[in-house]
Amino acid sequence: MKFQDAVRTCLNKYAVFSGRARRPEYWWFALFNLIGSAVTQSLDRMVFGPDMGVLGVIWGLALLVPSIAVGVRRLHDLDKSGWWLLIALIPILGTLLLIYWLIQPGTRGPNQYGPEPRVVV
């Protein structure tokens, strides 16, 4: 899956918490979110000064739901409940465990969350 395809898929599935998402879909969207956050923070500093983050807040709020949704679908691809995203609330250890899971390959074939996602080449 290419960068544009992953971003388009995640934005089209804005609040879809069912189904599965492959690694490229998740990580390309995470990169998109990171780049967008850096750009909006830079614009905030240039336009509003170092103390206000209006554009960054708007960016973060706009992508909060799709970020959670793709994270849930990524965990579904690993045959785990989406509730495991909450493990990131445990300082350091929870975040490291979640990152470890998110970089693992998904389960092959169908699992309890649906059929294996189609691979886009």
From TrEMBL:
Return the protein name.
Uncharacterized membrane protein YhaH, DUF805 family
Which chain regions cross the lipid bilayer?
Answer: 26-43, 55-72, 84-103
Q: Which species is the source of this protein?
A: Tropicimonas sediminicola
- Keyword Hydrolase attributed: no
Q: Does the keyword Transmembrane helix apply?
A: yes
Coiled-coil intervals, chain numbering:
none
Return the InterPro entries for the record: DUF805
Q: What Pfam families does this protein map onto?
A: DUF805
GO cellular component, as recorded: plasma membrane
Recite the UniProt keywords alphabetically: Membrane, Transmembrane, Transmembrane helix
